[in-house]
Structure formats: structure tokens, C-alpha cells
Here is the input.
Amino acid sequence: MDDEFDPAEFQPPRRTEPCRLYLISPQNVGDDFPERLKAVVADEVVAAFQLRVKDVPEHQLARLAEPLQRICSDAGAAFIVNDSVSLAKRLGADGVHLGQQDGDVREARAILGPQAQIGVTCHDSRHLAMDAGEAGADYVAFGAFYPTITKPSSYRPDPSILSWWSSIFEIPCVAIGGITPQNAKVLVDAGADFLAVCQAIWSASEPTKVVCEFSDLLKIPTKN
Here is the structure.
């Protein structure tokens, strides 16, 4: 973790746009998942969807991705591919999300072009976030803020890192890790531009109900 800093020194700026949801896929995106996704992204609460499926050959994942990408396009949600610049290029995805071991922002930009949305995992590190911004990332992701089974992590940033980032930089920041409607408010208040959510949505018996709970928190009216 970076050297300690005084969180009281930074206050998040007044919002001009509401915080929105950034959905992360479960591992199984086959079967009835396209219909589940269609229902969840029907409201403007969801700004982006990340395809994060591990240990599936690229050609097979590309076939699974096609209906999901169409659903996101119809709903006006960005379709982001996790880790794989080559798959993002193959699909013509809206962007790619890179972990610290998944490639270089500048190389991804050269391959995907100037319009691609490139995000970078920065854990609890101000240094990594600044490096990502300088390299041309379109957003930085901090977390995990809470325990999570989606991608277990020992990193536990304080919400003040969101205030620090949003008070200094214009690049959006994403909060990730174990986020639910019950624990998200502190992250929204701290300055998160997006909440990355997986299990809170896909493990629910009624995913659309959870989206509505988030919309109430984020003060975004839904169409339902």
C-alpha cells in the first residue's frame, strides 16, 4: 500500500452526474443468462457490463459474447472485455479492463484505437492509479472494498482513496469488491463514479429488484 495520507485533506467534489452501476458477469454466461442480462440492463442505472469469464477458449467465449454484446448495445450500456485485448479487438467491444498483469495501457490503445474505453485495476494504490492515468486509461478501479468471492483480494482500500482521486483527477473511478445496496452508500458519498457489482446482482433470486435498490441509493429513476 502507498504511504499513509490524511483522508480529511480531500473531500469529493460536488457531483454533476450520478454514480452508476458497472456490472461484472458471472462465470456462466450461457443457458438463460442473456435473458437475465436483458432484464437487468433495461434501466439506465447500468452504464457498463464487463465480460469476465475464466478458462474458456477465446473462440468459444466469442460465441457466448455475441448475444450479450447486442443486448448491451440495445440498452446503451458499454460492453467491456476483461483481460483480453485480442478478444476485445475480435468482438469490436467498447473496451477492455486490464489487471496489473494483463498488459500495458499504451499497447492496448494502439491495438483498440482512440475510442476504446480502457480501465485498469489499481487495488489500494494511488501510485498505480496515477501511472494508469498518465498512460491514458479511461478509468481506474480501486478495491476490493469489502470481502468478495468473485475475485478474492487482500487489498482493502479506505473509501477516502475515492475522495482523493475524484478531488484531483477528472478520470472516473470505479469502486469494486463485495458491494451491495446495503454497504454502497459510503463509497458513493466518497466519490465513486461507478460501482462494480457481480454477486449482489447475479446471486439474487430477483436481480432486477436489486438493481432497483441500487437505483434508489444512486437516485437514478428506473423505467419500471
In short: The CA atoms of residues 73 and 115 lie 15 Å apart. The chain is about 35% helix and 15% strand.
